[in-house]
Design goal:
By secondary structure, this protein is an alpha+beta fold. The protein folds into 3 domains: about 70 residues; about 130 residues, Immunoglobulin-like, CATH 2.60.40; about 230 residues, no CATH class. Helices cover about 35% and strands about 20% of the residues. It has 14 helices and 18 strands. The protein has a 6-stranded mixed sheet with strand order 9-10-13-12-11-18. A 5-stranded antiparallel sheet has the order 1-8-7-4-5. Strands 2-3-6 form a 3-stranded antiparallel sheet.
Amino acid sequence: MRRWLFDFYHRHLARGAAHVPEWLRAAGAGLLFALTRHPDFGFYHARSLVARGRAGRAARLYGQGEPVADPLFDAGLAPDSLPPATHADPLPASGVLQAQIGYLGLRLACEIRQDQGGPTPERLDLRIGDTVLRSETLEFRGGAARVRFRVSRPVLDRFPREAVLSARLDDGRYLPVPGGGTGWRLRLPGGDGGIAADIARCGPLEKKGQLRPDAGELADRQAEYLALYTQLRSVFEREFERPLLILYGTLLGQVRSADFIPGDDDFDVGYPSRATMPPAVRAEAMGIMERLAELGFIVVLNEFGRPFRVRAPDGAAWCHLDNRPIFAPGDGHVWLHKHARLPLPLSDFEISERAFLRGTEVLRPQNAEAFLGAYYGPGWRVPDPGYSNSGAALPRAVRRGLAQLCLSPRQQRAMMARHPGRIVAVRWQPLYPLAGYAAQVGF
């Protein structure tokens, strides 16, 4: 529903809606923010209020009474054609490149349709000018491949003040933008133009749209993740009498090489639930979150209220563990975020194996290779830097079942009230000042 409303706003109120008065666009954005708490709607509303001289109202609604200032208020995005000097005789592919500037950065959505009888492209490059921001591996389902990616705010600060954003397939074709243009002309008055040097030094953007830290900084961050994991694992064993398991990319790196995946900058964990149905799993997770808050940890719920991230007391926003419950509703599968229903027994997670990750003892599922094969597919042993499951189609039953794990807005506010500063719900975090949002949630 949130995505439908977001698309509706951009289709009928934002771009291409010159017949709609500005006050009505702003009112629509404000209403949609109240309904969904999507930060982009708050961003659009605040921007309009400031532009129309209503900065005081913007401060009351979005800045906790403080002035609302945002460099992205002055950003611009319009269809453009790439000059021949940049791409000689480009040919269009069947598909579209959508781009939207919002509160969290630049949102990109690509759809590539498979041509009958023609070669199937395998990769897509997202570019700013001649610089490749990121390469994505394409996976076609039902004749189409989809890629969703967001370039974060800190990265946008490094973009040129004006440049063309484009998407290029490995066969040389480009993805057209709505209306047939070959790219988006992006205007960022605050950009310093350093992105090409950053990528030449550290490589393409990582999966969360951030710049990759250099080798030394990355090693320091991974050491902090491991220290937090060791601390939290002890708490789970003592307080909850269950293992805290490494999962997903963290497990993938450990099984392959007893190390992190090259460039990996997050840490995935999970625990076996003693409940079987989503409402009971959610209630159990709420109890665990509240106990962690009582012990001084900071617990963060994402915009959907999904359980949950954990960071150390006074820890930086980036240093958190992505933690999720693993449960078996009796259908022969285990269920867990990220959007997974896997044909594995819960006993694989209730019984853990001791292993080492960069010299630190960790716990992993007793049949780790079965988990990796079920989630990543038979090619999981082969590294693929462009792998992403962002465009994967999800069965409706999986989406609905896992959505029931999420806390309602009322539950989130109640937990925040009981544990102020320790339980943080992104949905209710004030958008401005930007520094406050960054410290609590991170961009």
